Amino acid sequence: xxxxxxxxxxxxxxxxxxxxxxDFAVNVRAEQPPAWLRDRxxxxxxxxxxxxxxxxxxxxxRAVAERHxxxxxxxxxxxxxxxxxxLLPALRPRLAAIVHPxxxxxxxALRTAxxxxxxxxxxxxxxxxxxxxxxxxxxxxxVLGNPSNPTSVLHxxxxxxxxxxxxxxxxxDEAFADAVPGEPESLAGSAETPGLLVLRSLxxxxxxxxxxxxxxxxxxxxxxxxxxxRPPWPVGTLTLEAVLACCQPEAVAxxxxxxxxxVAHRKWLVEELCRLPGVAVQQPAAGPFLLLxxxxxxxxxxxxxxxxxxxxxxxxxxxxTEDHLRVAVRPPVRAAALVAAxxxxxxxxxxxxxxxxxxxxxxxxxxxxxxxxxxxxxRPDARAGAGYGAGVxxxxxx
Length: 398
Prior knowledge:
By secondary structure, the protein is of the alpha/beta class. It folds into two domains: 2-30 and 258-355, Alpha-Beta Complex (Aspartate Aminotransferase, domain 1); 35-251, Type I PLP-dependent aspartate aminotransferase-like (Major domain) (Aspartate Aminotransferase, domain 2), CATH 3.40.640. The protein is 32% helix and 17% strand. It has twelve helices and 15 strands. The strands form three sheets. A seven-stranded mixed β-sheet has the order 3-9-8-7-6-4-5, with helices on both faces. Strands 2-12-13-11-10 form a five-stranded mixed β-sheet. The protein has a three-stranded antiparallel β-sheet with strand order 1-14-15. The protein is globular. 48% of the residues are buried.
C-alpha cells in the first residue's frame, strides 16, 4: 500500500459546528422543523409498532410525483439524499466524472467500491462555470451539484442537460434547489432526459438532518438498478411521513417564501462581506451559503472559533485551498455577528501578514491509501463522532 495525499473527503460542516458555537458551518435553515411538520411526525410515532407498508411508500412517492409532475414509478424514497450517493456503485460504472468543488460523498462511495474517478475541476478565475468539454466523453457516470456546494453557483439547466449521453447516467444533486425561488434550473421534472438521476433532500429547508429524508427521480429501470442490494424496509415510517408532508402544495408554497427571504438575506450578507478588506465572495451566488476567499485562512478560521463562530473549512473540497471558507446565509440579525467577528479576525490576519509571522499549522488532511491497482481508497476518519459526520448518515450538501 502506498500512501498518497488527498483532501479529507469525509469532513463535513457538522464537524466544524461544535456545540456552543454560533453555527455558520451547516446549511440547515432552522434549528428545528416547523410546528406543523413536527406535529405530523409526532402523530406518526403511534404507527412505529408496525412495519412501513407498500401503501405508505406509494403515498410518499405519489406526493413527490405530483410535486415534480412525474409518475410514482419514477420516484425512489431515500434515507436522506446521501443514501443515493452511497447506492451509486450499484450502477457499475466504468468511469465516473465528478465535478468539483462539490459534495465529496459521491467520490468516497465510488472510490471505496473501486470505481475509477476523474475529477472535473471548475475554477475561481472562471467563476466556477461548468464546461461540458471538460467532462471525459468516455465517462458513463457524471455527478454534479446544482446549485453547487460549496461554490453556490447555479448552472444553466441546458448546460447540465447537455451532459446527457446514450449509455451515461447523469446524477444531479439538487439538495439546495428548493432554496432558489421558482427552481428555474431544476431538472427534477425532466423525465425526457436520458439517463438522468436527480437527488433531492428535505434536510436543509425543513430542518430534518436527524431524520434522513430525501428522494431520487429517474426512469423506473434506472431506479431499479440503483436500489439493487437495499435491505428490506430501507426507509422508516417517519421518513415516509416527512416526504409526504413536505411535498404537499402548502409546504411547497412555504418553501418558496423561505427561498425569497433567503435572496434578501444573501444580498445583505454579500454587501457586508464585500466591505471587508481582503474578502473575495464568489458571485453570483444562488444557494443558502457563500464561498469566501480570505488571506491566511487557517488563522482567520481559528480567530472566528475563538470568538464563538463556526464556519466551514473548504480545503477538504478538491480544487479549493485553506484560504477558502463557506458561510451559511442567516437573517441579518444573526449574520451581523459573523460580519463583526470576521472583520476583527481579518484585521489581525492582515496585520500579521504585514509583519511576516508564520500562520498556524493547517488542520491535517486525512490519509488516503492506494490499493494494488493504484485507485485511492479513503481511510475511515478516526476522530470522535466522524462516523456520524460521514457516509450514508451524512446529508448531501452539508
